[in-house]
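Page 47, continued from p. 46.
Same chain as before, 336 aa.
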Amino acid sequence: MIELEGVPELIDPVMVAAFEGWNDAGDAASTAVAHLEREWKGEVFAALDAEDYYDFQVNRPTVFMDGGVRKITWPTTRLSVVRVGGEKPRDLVLVRGIEPSMRWRSFCNELLGFAHELGVELVVVLGALLGDTPHTRPVPVSGVTSDPDLARRMDLEETKYEGPTGIVGVLQEACTHAGVPAVSLWAAVPHYVSQPPNPKATLALLNRLEDLLDLRIPQGELPEDARAWQVGVDQLAAEDSEVAEYVQTLEEARDTAELPEASGEAIAREFERYLRRRDVGPPGGHATADGGEGGSFRRDTPRDAPGGRARPPRPAKPDTETPDGAEGDDEGGSED
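Result:
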């Protein structure tokens, strides 16, 4: 039995989760939850026992100094609560951690135990995958669910994926079998510039989450960071004719495929978001934790360079999934 002391009764709670590692290309998903925690100033109310789920030779603990005292931070998954203010206040239960090394079913059952005790009405799991998408275009974000009724109500895709999966897919299916409505949102990160951070993909996930939950998320410095990231990648691509040519090929393919998408519905969605942003009422809130891994192709500059410099991928058989069943890179991959 999970006992939660000090956690107030929640209002229409939704659980939003993200995990570093295989399902977190460019750290986009884990950074999105970290952004919610930071902007709404939440505090951790629970953490899973690291001994139960993590191989410390894979995810090593870190040592730090606190007032002259040496301490250790163990890799784990933490939960926090955020109260979103406004005319219709509601609570978000934020889950941020690392994809577990072992005992995935027990891991999901423990998270579902918290969801049950807190009265969570919906679970949204964020993920990011590597895809053939140009960095110069809006980041594609797909929403998928295993529940056909939920797919119709929330304008989501009903997943048909078959193949290897990560903790995002396992948690979503665990929710479905437990009778808890669950959705996963996937951002596609350009595979030729896959190293973290990717603030443009993080911002796209948060915008999609806004639409899904009908709330306003403070963006902080993310829009500026996203613009700076794109300018940096533009500059690096311009210095390499091979990369520039490859990006142009991706742009042409994307523009051709999405020409019909310039629909009244898409325009209306963007206009609604613009109107929400003009409402400058103060946000409320609470939450905590930090970002991790993600896929990688060939890189020619250090990790902290803006966007990193990369060359087009060489022929190689990727072996991870994407929401629509296509394949992605081995580390930043995803699924439903």
